[in-house]
Protein 1
Amino acid sequence: MMVCEYKPGLEGIPAAQSSISYVDGQKGILEYRGIRIEELAEKSTFLETAYLLIWGELPSNEELKAFEHEVRYHRRIKYRIRDMMKCFPESGHPMDALQASAAALGLFYSLRDLHNPAYIRDSVVRLIATIPTMVAAFQLMRKGNDPIRPRDDLDYSANFLYMLDEKEPDPLMARIFDICLILQVEHTMNASTFSARVTASTLTDPYAVVASAVGTLGGPLHGGANEEVIQMLEKIGSVENVRPYIEDCLQTKSKIMGFGHRVYKVKDPRATILQGLAEQLFEKFGHDKFYDIALEMERVVEEKLGSKGIYPNIDFYSGLVYRKMGIPTDLFTPIFAIARVAGWLAHWKEQLAENRIFRPTQVYNGLHEVTYTPIDKR
Ligand SMILES: CC(=O)SCCNC(=O)CCNC(=O)[C@H](O)C(C)(C)COP(=O)(O)OP(=O)(O)OC[C@H]1O[C@@H](n2cnc3c(N)ncnc32)[C@H](O)[C@@H]1OP(=O)(O)O
Ligand SMILES: O=C([O-])CC(=O)C(=O)O
């Protein structure tokens, strides 16, 4: 057997062959199925992009209409799922609520008919359709309110924003939210997608695949950083405090949230687009002082860490966009999951097409031939 060098975090080790997305981290390029992210953000919608990622090609008009229709009519969640969610502690994190709810869907649809295209399509539609409803339902129920029923006349993103507070969203806000989902939907072999593929490789059901990926996305080194960025900006509080804050992080070797990336060594192209979206919102709905703090952070981090290739990642500006929409900070990562579920499902489908169970090796650095010490002699 070939002996390979151990790489912490599997840096640079290919874990799959994939045609779903492509990143050039030196040039700051991201493509979904070969199409540049900038073009999709300008011209596509989240559901069209999800279709592209999962089925490999842009849909025809009829295909898109059919997909949108199916998603629209699967948005409602079973009352037993709602009843289960009512028992969750209101102080719990919405990512944990989402992970548990996604797993619970598997109790109702545990068929695992993995060779049947109709089962694949049905699972894709159900997960993409119900995850926003479950996120919004927990948000209302933890405040003691009843969930708001999805509105069939609203499109995907407008309906989610509506379900958060029963107000039809401003059209610019709904469009910007939809673009955010396009930007967050997929990113090659990131930690949560890897998790999804490992889980998929055991041939379990897609609800378990998504639940395991949601659990992985929530950590602060991954999708959870978008929530931490806002907490950091609040803690810094003013532009003058930025430099001392960053100097302190460098001295204590703490991570600056929303900066750095395993693949990008330049500014993440999605951060650039998100920054532009935040500016559009500030223009229409008023400035946010945290944006000035964020700009100063970007300047100081570039000065101090630019030579190491540490620049803003996708999580740096997304929180400012969601904050301006009035969305609570602890929903930022669940919203990331609303988007990324389509990427995970594209990888689930690709993994199933040429499956082999993931079973890497390890470099054992423990003891051998140790004798058992009876408890009274320890
Ligand atoms: C959707 C997403 O997941 S995007 C990423 C979201 N996560 C964050 O924003 C959290 C902050 N960033 C980080 O923790 C990292 O940059 C990660 C997790 C994104 C990437 O991690 P890795 O590729 O393993 O890089 P690693 O943590 O080994 O850092 C490499 C070097 O850069 C430094 N570095 C990396 N990111 C940062 C940061 N945000 N702040 C300060 N220093 C950093 C490290 O201290 C290390 O320095 P050293 O070589 O002198 O020890
Ligand atoms: O790719 C990664 O390592 C992190 C990630 O999910 C992203 O940047 O969207």
Protein 2
Amino acid sequence: MDPLKVALLGCGSVGTQVARLLSTHAEELAQRVGAPLELTGIAVRTLEADRGPDIDPSLLTTDAPELVKRADLVIELIGGIEPARTLILQALAGGASVVTGNKALLAEHGPQLYEAAERGGVELYYEAAVAGAIPLLRPIRESLAGDRVRRVLGIVNGTTNYVLDKMDTAGLDFSAAVAQAQSLGYAEADPTADVEGYDAAAKAAILASLAFHTRVHAADVHREGITQVSAGDVASAKQIGAVVKLLAICERTVAADGAEGVSVRVHPAMIPASHPLASVRGAFNAVFVEAEAAGELMFYGQGAGGLPTASAVLGDLVSAARNRVGGSRGPGESTYAQLPLRPMGEVITRYHISLDVADRPGVLASVAKVIAEHGVSIETVRQQQIESEVGEGRASLVVVTHAATEAALEATVSALAGLEIVTAVVGVMRVEGED
Ligand SMILES: NC(=O)c1ccc[n+]([C@@H]2O[C@H](COP(=O)([O-])OP(=O)(O)OC[C@H]3O[C@@H](n4cnc5c(N)ncnc54)[C@H](O)[C@@H]3O)[C@@H](O)[C@H]2O)c1
Ligand SMILES: N[C@@H](CCO)C(=O)O
Ligand code: NA
């Protein structure tokens, strides 16, 4: 068979490893595909940079559109919206299948790209975009195609997991932990997308779209990052036998009248130390998928890093290439269900509420009354005196609630903050996961 022409766009952490594996595994890849894969060029921003021994300098070009024009398969590893979007659209329109790891682009402009793939009669694969090396999107799209996914819950950002892990195990504060993540190459020079939860929210949108056959955009995802997580929150979690993790949670919801919907959120949460997600350390990722017939499935592995991510890219490349050789096409976008997105207020969760209160008779009763008035039930209460030399005695009161709607919990917290005996609402964090 004639070789299939492969264009690589971007030669950074992932692109370099993809180029290297394409060359070192060339023979095996040809066997698996049924035709040789010929890397015809690598689009870069500047030709001058030294890219090490793995990159053949004669393949480098700054003319990405020209490279795309001649390709059967295009691998986009530039990242960001433009020029990645225009180049992918050009490739799909020109009849080339595309493999990308670009979650930001997919979560924002996915529909436009899928439609272009459909029109071009070609494929668009993106396993690397969510949880790096971990095979997760293909299992959801293909292996679970006969089942109904109820929930996807997981840690999908390596940088923030590393930061929270260091705050927990090494007692670092937030900025020291971020600095360490940067020095190890996990966090970018500008870690905003990671620490503010944008990266995880884009991944959650992609996961929810696949799991629920519904278009979910990044903007549909309720997003809170980890910048507000304090050493105090991490210590409070420890006291109740929990750890703080940044979670992505995609759920199929069912209203009282049976109407189904979807809720998608990314936020820090306390989870019991005995929960399998609690033991996901460092920059690793782990995702639980709960389906009606299959039950709970857990996917675990390296969610970031050039080499692990390259594995997912090449897996997609082999699939797309094999289909091309066989004249077939894998499944395209599936959005037939188009379930409505439910507002955050309807989400059912538990809260850990930490208060500073006046240490005088009746305080506990007043707090309990406010909570009960909002229809929220208390799971545990812990009170501790705060040492103070002057004025009235103060105490720290920690309440963990039973599950209630987010709206009821929010209203409870504002009512508590308004009580004269509450000096400060020290921290509020959701509690997720069963023991
Ligand atoms: N690094 C990871 O762990 C990881 C994991 C999963 C997914 N991804 C995704 O993979 C993609 C690439 O990530 P990365 O870590 O390799 O990024 P990177 O920043 O290391 O590499 C991107 C490269 O693209 C180059 N580039 C920028 N504009 C260009 C242009 N117009 N033409 C050609 N090259 C251009 C940059 O100079 C850089 O070398 C991103 O979409 C990222 O989100 C990365
Ligand atoms: N910045 C991302 C890379 C993988 O998508 C992370 O830390 O998980
Ligand atoms: Na993956």
Protein 3
Amino acid sequence: MRDFYGIELKTPMMLGTARYPSPAVMEAAFHSSGASVATVSLRREQGAGQAFWDMVRGLGVHLLPNTAGCHSSREAITTAQMAREYFQTDWIKLEVIGNADTLQPDPFGLLDAAEVLCADGFKVFPYTTEDQVLAARLIDAGCRVLMPWGAPIGSGMGLNSIYGLRTLRAAFPDVAMVIDAGLGLPSHAAQAMELGFDAILLNTAVAEADNPAAMARAFAMAAQAGALAAASGPMGMRDMAVPSTPLVGKAWL
Ligand SMILES: CC(=O)[C@@H](O)[C@H](O)COP(=O)(O)O
């Protein structure tokens, strides 16, 4: 696995901390998934009690504050600065939303904020699309991790653009990449890892499952299987059939 600003994660699982039916259910999902990273929102901090944050800190995972809900670079920069102070980390998952329906990132605001935050010493994890030009600009700005979307947040659609994600992965082989958002089933996680991505970040599919802890475990197992497959040299696809049983010894009538 590629490193994340010098940190090697124990597992390729990153989990969000929203939408769970209770803090206890969320804690169980983290434990059963073996997640290495928890995304946390400063906005949520304003509404959650101290007990919730004590529990999150007690999970023993890396905290990745986000700028969820920000619609301008200025708002995201201010939120990131507050989050650094509150959560005592220079990691920031940078979200600048450009479309209220799809929650698609605003590429212009994202790049603007990434340039400012990287120059200010942040380790920026930008929530982006599969756009290669934007990816190159984000890397130029100092981002060493990219978080392309699989599909719109909360949609559960999986990987909407296999071609775009595959070519993005191939274009920047040294950059750690996390598929963030839109995963609905463990098979989507396996597919992301099979494509060579380094980790997955999800929230809704686990939090809204009937049994979040079991679903979190299923995602973790699928991600592990996908990573093992990627490292094992998958066969190439062919247009034509090739018999898997040798013809030698066949009775010719
Ligand atoms: C949790 C987070 O920071 C977001 O990236 C997002 O909520 C994840 O997307 P899904 O909820 O679609 O998994």
Protein 4
Amino acid sequence: MRWGLWTLAARAARGPCSNCPDRALHLTHLLATRGPHSFTGEDCVELHVHGGPAVVSGVLQALGSVPGLRPAEAGEFTRRAFAHGKLNLTEVEGLADLIHAETEAQRRQALRQLDGELGQLCCDWAETLTKALAHVEAYIDFGEDDNLEEGVLEQADSKVRALEVALDTHLRDARRGQRLRSGAHVVVTGPPNAGKSSLVNLLSRKPVSIVSPEPGTTRDVLETPVDLAGFPALLSDTAGLRDGVGPVEQEGVRRARERLEQADLIVAVLDASDLASPSSRNFLDTVVVPGGGQSSGGSTQRLLLVLNKSDLLPPQGPGPCPALPPHLLLSCLTGEGLDGLLETLKTELAAVCGDPSTGPPLLTRARHRHHLQGCLDALSHYKGAEDLALAAEALRVARRHLAHLAGGGGTEEILDVIFRDFCVGK
Ligand SMILES: Nc1nc2c(ncn2[C@@H]2O[C@H](COP(=O)(O)OP(=O)(O)OP(=O)(O)O)[C@@H](O)[C@H]2O)c(=O)[nH]1
Ligand SMILES: [Mg+2]
């Protein structure tokens, strides 16, 4: 196979051949790397063919006589790199995230994971556990021996305690990393006709929702994925909140409230020229003032108050309005205030998703949380173990959980799920 590849390389380098009348090989560039310094660790030849399916099939036909040659499968190069120990599982996940990154923040986070930061951290933790386990096993084997260093078990205990604190801190990250990977839920709400749909269309730069002067235009929840100031978000437009309307709009209001519960960030929109109306007052009292606190699910929500239609205000501003929380002025009509809004959204979303440029590596997948939690649980068994053999076994279980994040440790099923996301080749 290796010689087959080099023959292929030579042939591709030579250019057109009789089997390839359309001179497709002129469109082929060759990249050859010797193992173990290649991406996969093996001798590699990559052919980069410029052209559509017809050109590619012409090239494949021309090279078809090379024994063992076939097109790479989706994720094959990465799978081979994994098999040769060039990448561990968290790095493979980072590569998959990089391929799918749609925003700058996702790209930076994926690069950090691909650089192996999370894997290295777990490696360090696993090493701590190996030392603690060595202490416990030494005590089991030589506990009676006078030569055994004093306080071995206390040393193991203090290592475990320090590790528990570190794991707990990571697990209390409010799932920022997972939000950064899959997008923060940003829900636009407000009384009818405040300009919610206008704002959603402005932020998503496409006509997602119908805009009309008639209050109660939006009924269903309309969601669209957007890049908001460099962060991934799932932006939801919702029905204007009001009581006492027909059954269809009431269902819309019910859905809007349900969606609000799931929001990571609520963007509350009011008509700046209509702050004294009952619907604005009611919205301020029931959503804005109690908001920015807890959703019923117990997670912390953030709230941003936007006073839209600033173009309708007199030059001196919205006028006296008691208990108006911090807010931004915006005009969806003229675009005035949009830059300030995007800047504030960036700060808010960095708080919701975590800033990928700073701080410790984020946990971007449920799998990461599962193993860190499993490790933490095993450490609590260590502390509660009635005898030393059980304590040592608990440490081994804890270490196995970390190995799933630090090294190979991945099962075929996990790999299959990840590789399904890969494009052909890489
Ligand atoms: N003058 C002015 N009009 C605006 C602005 N933003 C929206 N409008 C108008 O306000 C009306 C309502 O806008 P929508 O975006 O449909 O409001 P909404 O909050 O989605 O309304 P519902 O879906 O009915 O709850 C439309 O006629 C818009 O053109 C603005 O900044 N200035
Ligand atoms: Mg609307």
